[in-house]
Amino acid sequence: MKTVLTLALCLMAVPALAQGAKAPPHVERLDPALDAVIAPGTKVEKVATGFIFTEGPMWKDGKLWFSDVRGDKVRTFEPKIGDPKSGKVTVILSDSGGVRNAPPTANSGSNAMVTDKDGSILICRMAIGTIERMDDHGNLTPFLSRYEGKRLNSPNDLVYGPDDALWFTDPSFGLPKMDADPKKQLKFNAVWRYAGGKLTPAITDMPQPNGIAFSPDGKTLYVSNSMPDMYVRAYDVGADGKLSNPRTFISYPGSADDVPDGMKVDSAGNVWTTGPGGLRIISPKGKVLGQIVIPEIVANIAFAEDGKTVYLTGSTSLYRLHSRVAGEIPKYYRK
User: Fold this and answer.
1) At 254, which CATH number?
2) Is the residue at 127 inside a domain?
3) Model pTM?
4) Structural domain span for residue 118
5) 245: which DSSP letter?
6) 316 contact partners, CB below 8 Å, separation of at least 6
């Protein structure tokens, strides 16, 4: 109950944004402890724009890799040395979701990406329900697509656990009619664990699982649920990825267009999670420290460079700020 109350107050702090107004990018301090995470006066800057709905950011080899879910492309943003407010945007992969000429109103493109141990990229291709391996030039090879002969729904977000297992969420957002779509073959929208060549549904009771992240010690797994109820759930992680003690880490009242989506965890264990009104920074104990507000829907986040550069995918644009606490670096991170 205390967590829900905190979120209700947090939502009240940004009524204009919740109603669709264009608030300028800024950081809202909701607890003094935020100062240890983000310095007072930190600016949020827009560094690139002109997209349709950006998602799945990942830092690799000096560039931010990201998907345009409705633009159906994978792009990179390379900051310009000596001019931090500009950079080069390059298209790496067109038809990134796996179908040609996807309509810009559909969530048909690619989504999250993660670097694998060999330096290649695992990419979620939502329209065709696969995770594929991609090289730096956009060339693709199969990786995961089926469970017991049935196609996956639309893999969305993914992360490597400390034991080298790959975890990913598989909601139905990439299917035109979602759960009612005739292409849907699985009865559930799972959180999956892939280890030792075996794919296992680890969670099957979340309606639309979305973002996924681990605590720095790997003992807690966080998963966001987008709809119909909006919340982030936490699990204890045991041997061989066995999950226990499911509990609500944070929940959001009502409904909103900017649903709980992507998330990351910093090296102090704070959870940076998207949701109604922007991106919240929440302590490991569930206390909301602050939120980052931009005039668009914040779908996801990536820690970049030394871990203290933070990128936000905000619908049509990329935003950037700097933190005092480094983000938890992905297992096969390549700076």
Assistant:
1) 2.120.10.30
2) yes
3) 0.93
4) 2-322
5) E
6) 49, 50, 51, 52, 53, 54, 296
